[in-house]
Amino acid sequence: MSKGPLFDKHILAVEDEPLVAMLLEDMLEQEGAVVVGPALRLEQAIEIAQTRDLDAAILDVNLGGKTSFPLALVLEERGIPYLFVTGYGEAARREIKTDAPILSKPFRLEDVRNILIKLIRGMPKDSPDAAGS
Questions:
Q1: What is the layout of strands, in order, in the sheet containing 10-14?
Q2: How far is 72 from 78, CA to CA, in rounded Å?
Q3: Cα 52 from chain centroid?
Q4: Which entry of 24, 33, 58, 97 is 20 to 30 Å from 104 by CA?
């Protein structure tokens, strides 16, 4: 396995749909990332976010009827970048009130990968050459 930009990065995956969680986990592992989780419940995800060393996180907006916004606040307090995935698309931005990237479900794994790379490198999500390597 080549040591690409996600190699050995600790990524928290928060997703309550088991198939989507497995898909994210597989993608991250193929990139050489260390998958933290996946967390299926908000409480579990918050505990992980408060106690583990993380490089970035992928957050499903809706976790069993609860939003992941409290988790996003924990990550922001710790300076950990994150992106949201949601079935609500950009319409969720009104609820979220954040500049964090939002991917609509169904999403392309390549898009998740590219956004994670940009977040970890500290580049704006709109930067055209942030995902290269």
A1: 34-39, 10-14, 56-60, 82-86, 102-104
A2: 10
A3: 15
A4: 33
